[in-house]
Write a sequence for this structure.
């Protein structure tokens, strides 16, 4: 239930719309203004497979890092180089996934650990020996799907948030590099891995 009445909601929407329009106007002014030519040439001269251009940085400051990455994506798609070709450019949306801590497995978004129960012999007052099955603290003795007794412990899985990113290939002919652009909250980060192309001769 909204705590704002209709008039307040309309005012909020107009205010948000006004801010967006003002931000767009600032960007347009910069692009159309005297510094536009310099920004444009710097963008064209920039190698998006190595660094981000001024427009990517500007759009990030005005609209957020995803807008900046989308500009970087367009630059990568249109990359022209005499040394390599860029292919398989892909923009990855932000995502959330769950992972299990060490020693656990993920089952239905729950982290589960299994242990074998230990047999413990105890002597009663009358001298008879009784065998018990014990599990470590925090575990519950239960039957698995096969009817076998096991110790089970369930904990909350670790939530991992991945920001948006761009992946692409740089093909040099005899080898290629896999590149990935991301944003860590303060600056853009670039990771690259080199691969060698091999050809197996048929018999």
């Amino acid at each position: 239930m909204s705590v704002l009445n209709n008039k307040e909601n309309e005012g909020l929407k107009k205010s948000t719309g006004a801010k967006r329009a003002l931000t767009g106007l600032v960007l347009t002014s910069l692009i159309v203004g005297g510094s536009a030519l310099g920004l444009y040439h710097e963008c064209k001269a920039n190698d998006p497979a190595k660094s981000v251009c001024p427009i990517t940085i500007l759009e990030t400051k005005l609209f957020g890092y995803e807008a900046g990455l989308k500009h970087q994506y367009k630059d990568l798609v249109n990359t022209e180089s005499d040394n390599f070709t860029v292919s398989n450019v892909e923009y990855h949306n932000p995502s959330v996934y769950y992972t299990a801590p060490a020693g656990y497995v993920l089952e239905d978004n729950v982290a589960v650990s299994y242990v074998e129960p230990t047999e413990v012999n105890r002597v009663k007052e009358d001298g008879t020996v009784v065998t018990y099955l014990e599990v470590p603290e925090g575990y519950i003795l239960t039957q698995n799907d096969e009817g076998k007794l096991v110790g089970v412990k369930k904990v909350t899985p670790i939530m991992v948030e991945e920001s948006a990113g761009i992946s692409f290939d740089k093909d040099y002919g005899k080898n290629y590099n896999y590149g990935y652009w991301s944003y860590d909250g303060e600056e853009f980060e670039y990771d690259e891995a080199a691969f060698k192309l091999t050809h197996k001769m048929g018999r």
